[in-house]
Amino acid sequence: QSAVACFGQLFPDKSAQAASYLVQKLQPESSRLSAARALKAIAESANADVLRTQAESVFLSFTTYLRTRERLVVEASLEGLIELTRVFDVTPNDELFANITQLIGDEDQRLTSLVLCLCSIMVQKFGSEVVPMIELTVWTRVDVILKSTSAIAITQNALLSLIDSLAELDVRPLDYQSTYLFFRRFSVEWGASSRAYNALPAKCISILCKHGSPEQRALIIDDLLGKSRPRDQPDISIFFALSCVCELGRSSVFSSGQSEAATQMVLQALETQAEEVRTLAAQALGAISSGNGKQGFIDLVQLIEVKPNMRYLLLTSLKEAISHINTADAKDLTPLILSMLNKMNTTGTSAVSTPGDSSVNEESIRSISSECLGLLTGLTPSTMLPELQKMSGSQDPQLRAVSIMALRHAMNGGVSGELLSLLGPMIPTFLGLLNDTALIVRKSSLVTLNALIRSVWHMVEPFEETVLVALHKETQKDQSLVRVVNLGPFQYVEDDGLDLRKAAFESLITLIHVNPLHVDISDFTAMTVHGMKDHQDVRALAQLALISMSQLPSAANIVLEIEPLTEALTEALSATLKSNAVKQEIERHEDSLRSGLKTVKALNTVTEITRHPSWMSFMTDVVRAPRLVDKYNAVEYEPASRGFHTMGAPDAMEI
Question: What is the C-alpha to C-alpha distance for residues 203 and 209, in angstroms, rounded to an integer?
Fold first, then answer.
């Protein structure tokens, strides 16, 4: 295909002859796919003109091939139709519209996106000539895309492109007003009970408003804000209104008066009891604030300070606003936002009782604050990294925890060159928080350590000893963190160190995958043995670490810890259920057994282990005993868990 695309440049005198030959090769089924792809390659190349005399006949052939059952031929035909329509004065016909309409659906998103792309190009090229036919055919299937819960980005973007073309043209029967009413009716029918069906229609409304006149925009915005509605139309749902306000806010299409009215509507929605509505309202408020530029951020920060009962939701709005800010504004606004977040996370000030929102506590505020700071750090590393380093030395443990978590969030979207160059000298400071006296700081540090190992291991490696000492400590159960909580006649055990141990094992697993050739197998195995005698969640992670180590070149060294290893596995596989166990307990018990048996299966791939007498006794007495033998045989036939050589560390839930 590449050769065909440049054929005209090499042999200009034979280009027409080659094109004629390829057109002939469209007829036999054996050569149709290759010929279609080659013709498409020519049509999108600089030599497309060689097809001019035969463009119409090729267009008709491609139209016919849309009915074939061979998907690859259909895809190649659609791609060819797109290029031919873009380059030549071909004539769309009824057969084309009938054929492409039946291709729209959930079953094949690629074909659906190509159909929408073709329609968009036809609208741009032929204008009002094709709009009535699109409305009678393809448009009748648009609701299928809107209802889809699996529509991928390429399909959604193709639909948005078609809406953009129609809105710019603005001719009946798919003019501005008719298109808006179509999405409005869809929302009333499908979007009243859930926000899921409103996201894509809201993006379409935003595109309409981008092209509409101020008067047209005002009619839509008044409808969304509940000031007026089109004649004979029912009220829209709050989900649709908030979703549209969110998109319009990001697009900065509100006038000052409209922005103020939208803000009031959103603030009222924040007071409702429905959590899904409040969450969407918080997102909409952030979008409005970002669309209003610097003043929008200033107003939002002031709102956060004067409305402590909405603190968490308003911080969610701030996160949404920061995610759409430009770098210049981020630098100017960082001092204001940083000052407010520091104050918000000073011990004793962040936990505020919020009616109807039980999620608001110090941990919630700390988490959302660190996300905001992480986003700012990604935008302005030179400003924010020194501030995070300063916060890491604060006397307040909450600020130290926020600083280290913000670093993790800063790396979520990838590590920029500027961030890399500035982070290196600060690594020792941040790693020092692994030994912090405060539990919340150590937990946050371990979670961030995982991200650092994964993203910038070359910076962490010089301090590997510090990391291993911390992992040794945090993978073991600290009885001082276990307490009994009395609830009148009932008691339960609260293990405050559980999350620490889970985070430590997750970092251990990542370290095995990132640095497989320098893993001290005996040392790491000893840590996993402790983990397998722990809580079920920790045990699963410890077993996943063992599975990863079993596939390392140095896996034979696991045998050095074979005695305590078989003892821990025996204990895990011998656990029994209480007689009055409920369904959830039974399922967790079965998951635990499968996890242990998968670990056994992985270790059985290491020859030195299988030959050890203790392991052979364990296999005979425990694994192949009547109680487990059928379960183990079932596990043996399952695909192997991912090894250390695959891309990235496996998901902890995989086991």
Answer: 10
Query: Which of the 8 DSSP states describes residue 287?
Result: H
Q: Is the pLDDT of residue 572 over 60?
A: yes
The angle that helices 327-344 and 293-306 make with each other, rounded to 10 degrees, is 10
What pLDDT is stored for residue 115 in this prediction? 97
How many whole angstroms separate alpha carbon 151 and alpha carbon 113? 10
Distance CA 321, CA 329 (A): 11
Owner of token pair 């924040």? 270
Return the structure tokens found at 154: 């390429």
349: Cβ contacts below 8 Å, ≥ 6 apart? 343
| H-run or E-run covering 527 | helix 521-531
Q: How confident is the model at residue 344 (pLDDT cuts 50, 70, 90)?
A: confident
Q: Using alpha carbons, list the distances in angstroms from residue 6 to 12, 87, 443, 484.
A: 10, 17, 59, 76
The pLDDT of 83-87, averaged and rounded, is 95
Q: What is the largest CA-CA distance in the chain?
A: 95
Q: Which of 101, 94, 109, 189 is nearest to 145 (CA)?
A: 109
Q: What is the DSSP letter of 236?
A: P
Inform me whether the pLDDT recorded for 470 exceeds 70. yes
The SS3 call for residue 491 is strand
Distance, CA of 63 to CA of 77 (rounded, Å): 7
> What is the number of alpha carbons within 13 Å of residue 47 lying toward its C-beta?
24
The pLDDT assigned to 21 comes to 83
Q: Which residues of 202-239 are buried (b: 16+ CB within 10 A; e: fewer)?
A: bbbbbbbbebbeeebbbbbbebbbeeeeeeeeeebbbb
Whole-angstrom distance, CA of residue 526 vs CA of residue 272: 52
Q: What is the pLDDT of residues 275-303, one digit of tens each?
A: 999 999 999 999 999 999 999 999 999 99
Angle at 408 between CA 404 and CA 409, to 5 degrees: 115
Instruction: Count other C-beta atoms under 10 Å from residue 171's C-beta.
Output: 15
The rounded distance, in Å, linking the Cα atoms of 539 and 521 is 18
CB 90 within 8 A of CB 55: yes
CA atoms within 13 A on the CB side of 397: 15
Terminal C-alpha separation, the chain: 44
Residue 178: count other Cβ atoms within 10 Å of its Cβ: 14
Closest CA to 173 of 138, 213, 149, 198: 138
Q: Take residue 199 and report the two structure tokens written for it.
A: 């996201």
Mean pLDDT, residues 510-527? 92
Please tell me the distance from the alpha carbon of residue 547 to that of residue 183, in angstroms, as a whole number: 51
Q: Which letter, b or e, does each residue of 9-25 get, where b requires 16 or more Cβ atoms within 10 Å of its Cβ?
A: eeeeeebbebbeebbeb
Secondary structure string (H, E, C) spanning 409-443:
HHCCCCCCHHHHHHHHHHHHHHHHHHHCCCHHHHH
CA atoms within 13 A on the CB side of 565: 30
Q: Are 143 and 108 in contact (CB under 8 A)?
A: no
Q: Residue 296 CB: number of other CB atoms within 10 A?
A: 23
State the DSSP code for 213: -
- Residue 243: how many CB atoms within 10 A of its CB? 28
Which of 178-182, 228-232, 525-529, 620-624 is the least confident region? 228-232
